[in-house]
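Summary for the steering committee. The consortium agreed at its last meeting that each partner would contribute one worked example illustrating the joint modelling workflow. Our contribution is presented below. We chose a case with several input lines so that the handling of multiple components could be demonstrated. No manual editing was applied between input and output; the record is shown as generated.
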Amino acid sequence: MDLKGRLLIASVFCGWLLAPTSAVALDVTIGYIHWVPDQGPVLSNVTPEPEDAGLRGAELGIADNNATGKFLDQNYALESVMASDEEGALAALDDMLKNGIDLLVTRVPADTLRAMAKKADGKALLFNAGASDDNLRISECRPNVLHTIPSYAMLTDALAQWLSMRRWKEVFLITGPTDQDKAWADAFRRASKRFGLDIIADKPWTFDSDLRRTASKELPAFTQARDYDAVVVADVRGDFGEYVPFNTWLPRPVVGTQGMGPEAWHRVVEAWGAAQLQNRFRELAGREMNSEDYAAWAAIRSIGTTVTGISEAGHSNIREYLFSDDFQLAAFKGRKLNYRPWNGQLRQPIPLVHPRGLVATPPLEGFLHPDSELDTLGYDRPESDCRIN
Amino acid sequence: MKNAYKIVTLAAAIGLSGPALASLAYVSNEKDNTLSVIDTETNEVVDTIDVGARPRGILLSRDYTKLYICASDDDTVQVLDLATRKITDTLPSGEDPEQFALHPNNRHLYIANEDDAIVTVVDVETKDVLAQIDVGVEPEGMAVSPDGKWAVNTSETSSMLHWINTETFEIEKNTVVGQRPRHVEFTKDSKIAWASAEIGGTVHIFDVDTIEEIKQIDFRIKGVPQDRVQPVGIELTSDGKYAFVALGPSNHVAVVDAQTYEVLDYLLVGARVWQLDLDKDEKFLYTTNGVSSDVSVIDVEELKVIKSIKVGRFPWGVVIDPTS
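What follows is the complete predicted structure of the assembly.
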């Protein structure tokens, strides 16, 4: 190439290089607030949940955003608080709002989230990456709260869809004593009606003996019934559920919160490029990525994808784009994800997993929906009172 | 006359214990750690070659004597000698190589290192790493323009095309496209580049002189949910007539008019169609179908699928040796 040609090309390149920088350099700080109440002692403490579940997903989201942002002069930072009680979590929110942070990811219980949403009303957009309670999606929605963690209804619909597809329609339900267990079981009862399952026994878990010694004696008697196709366990914190598989009266599979069950994310998910996300996470955190990590990651990637799309920050701009037709999140689940306009829930396929393998990823073929197959999971528009847009 | 030729090649193939003489397609089987060799005259698998772990991207050297293989889980690029069908060498590739492209100089190999967010440039003769270029998250697709000026990398999670100057090994421009860009294909004259966006469900057409997007193609297949329509591999006929776009889990290949960018037809192939390649006369198109573990053969003139060929598990890439 002659010199003239080189100069010409050089000047054209300069034009390109200037373009993104002469657009606005953007600094986006995202808050992360984490407060998980003590779950109390559990019988099965073999694999405790990591204490930083959620936080590390948020950190990976920031790293992914920056890897993209560096080409567009967009910089992301995370300000995280691991609170030890509800007051601490609410105080952290006050501080962040005062410091002008208007995008936050929360991993807090539903009650705390309600209080936070009120405080942040008109000031910040919250991404719920911790509370699966269905009420937050059907009656108590807030315009400034989006949900990246699936609701109990989404999880149990995924499971019920699969049981229905397998024609394992008669199930034995065991529900633990906590509010979360009851909420999960309520969601499953609703799902069983939607997908034509028959709960032939619906028993609360009342035993307080140490099942590590007596599971093989107690559980066969507890699960006696004429016949059933599967046992469904609702034990969200992982207290007794691990002892149900292989100890049932009849030789039947155990599904639900233990055995094989629905998760937002799990280490066995590897298709659609997920292996790369799992590798990046493992490198960052030194452990496997779980559902809470994924929900926090998806929230921060939603923000990053939006800022890439509109070259602007600010919670109201971002919210507008998130609910527009232009928004689509590539999130390693084999389809583009977006938010339900009526309640702010992130639509997503739900992997059904056992500890060492993936079984299926609802929505399953054949369960139809006029708008999006993903809306066969969770409360659909006509079933929710929420209209946040 | 043509029949007589066929008989001769068949006889030759039977007579020889070594590689056959007919035109051969090589298919990388991601979950079998093998390559399937298909005789494109008979459309049958004639050999299976053991290679490194998780073979994905494959390409032929410009003199058609070697096949380069991204052995992703072995973190290496293997060199297969086509005459002996033996792995003769490995190249330093950086971690988790997935796709790559060879410069027309037959020396500079551009490798996308998916886990490291870099593109590695290796001289295949000296095995020197000439450059490592920072790109976005999960670099995936790699293409070098036929005139050798541009190397384009797609980064899946950053949803960008990175335009790399092949003289300086520096990124000159980044263009944002649909979500999860997968693959780039240049026209023969290097004037137009086609880029697929898997999750976006779109194909983006770029004018290479200005590096501006001039057209976006959307796909709609009757009876297939829109979010299952996921463009991945692209193949262009050299006469400028057609572009074929593999649409992933929709199990269809789109036929696009390469002049008007209008979608002409959708052809039903195997499950999760991934990459595709034309045979030497461009009469037949071969597609890899990951989930059904087979290869579909499309008659280009009739635009009809004429055969499916069972290969190894999760076939990923396919290349056809035009000289064989």
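Chain B has one domain: 26-321. The domain at 26-321 of chain B is CATH 2.130.10.10 (Methylamine Dehydrogenase; Chain H).
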